[in-house]
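Submission checklist for the structure archive. All mandatory fields must be present; incomplete records are returned to the submitter.

[x] Identifier: Methyltransferase type 11 domain-containing protein
[x] Organism: Trapa natans
[x] Residue count: 440
[x] Sequence attached
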Amino acid sequence: MGNSEDYGYPKKKKRSTMKTMLKILLLVILTNLLTIYIFAGAPSSFHHDLSGYTNGLSLPLLAWRNTTAALLSELASTRAQLDATRSQLSDFHQRLQVVAGLLVRPQEDGEDDDEGGRRLLESLPEEARLAVGPHILPLGFSIRSGSDTVYPSVGSACLKYKDDLVQYMKYEVGGECPVDDIFAQRLLLKGCEPLPRRRCRPRSPKGYVGPAPLPESLWRVPPDTSIIWEPYTCKSYNCLVNRMKRPGFYDCKDCFDLQGREKSRWLSDNGNLDYSIDWVLNTKPPGSIRIGLDIGGGGGTFAARMRERNVTIITTSMNLDGPFNNFIASRGLVPLHMSVSQRLPFFENTLDIVHSMHVLSNWIPDTMLEFTLYDIYRVLRPGGLLWLDHFFCQGPQMNQTYVPMIDRVGFRKIRWNAGMKMDKHMNEWYLSALLEKPMT
């Protein structure tokens, strides 16, 4: 590039011009500093002394002071806004730290506190690992869940029984599931609840015949071709209906005989342990009991009786040497295959009534039973009913354990009847009670 002479400007001329500009700039700076000192912080004596140097000229000090006051006011406002901005930035920084903690914590927890579980996952076959392991969300971090990972809902004990878990997940992907109902239920009862999902199709019964239409289906035994009999001792419904006449212990031995004792359950009230459905429904305004749950409902007869009264009841049941869930569904009712130890799959304050006959009794550990009662309280709406139907226990347990437990949960007693069990020669008692969740 050319020098300054190429453009017609001698070097000395340019240097002189630069010095002049620097002097002017320095004078402007000094003048501004002097002005700020005079009108912002200088004492009044300084203004008096300054008049000697102004040759009697009248300076527009008042106007300058007004201007300075406006500038100072604006400066104070700016400082206040700056302080507010700093506070917002500090709050925003704290929120960023919280979000960063949410983003990092799942990984840190996995690294620090669950190393053994991660090693166990890595040791599982691929299908089992996919079923029980975490999955990264395809759209990234979710504000709703506070994580970028989704975890399958699988019982923690599934990883405790690794060999059983591997056996349960052994099948051809996309093929037919093994007929392993008994094994799967035993795994569930060990605490592996819910069971992992599987990518296989259960076998359909040969010559399958559909159920009868409602309301006929409520009291008709379904055809044998409606289920697969391999997991059960009985190989037909006729065998199940008649096994009540045979010796031996069976869970809900007479549940499948719909023309026997099942036909008369909950229709009459003896003023003692046996409550009728109609009496219970009449404790509430007509139509206010609409939906509910029957815990351990056997073959679903309680739900069938309520269905006849336009009340929808979901029945939990286990397939203990009998196709109870299939049987309930064939009657046009809704079954849930789950144990009494699982958290009830309902939101709080939703159900009108919860019923249980025999199942909620002293065979359940006290602490687990108390958790169950609190969970029932949770899902019942205010004013909802808990019908304890023939709860049984040892005589001393009634007042020492179970009455205080029910009081702790907070139910209000509407009806309460106790009586000795007459089928066994020991100090066992029954309790039937209708309890209400308080309105407030």
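[x] Structure attached
Curator remark: The CA atoms of residues 195 and 270 lie 42 Å apart. The first strand starts at residue 135 and ends at 136.
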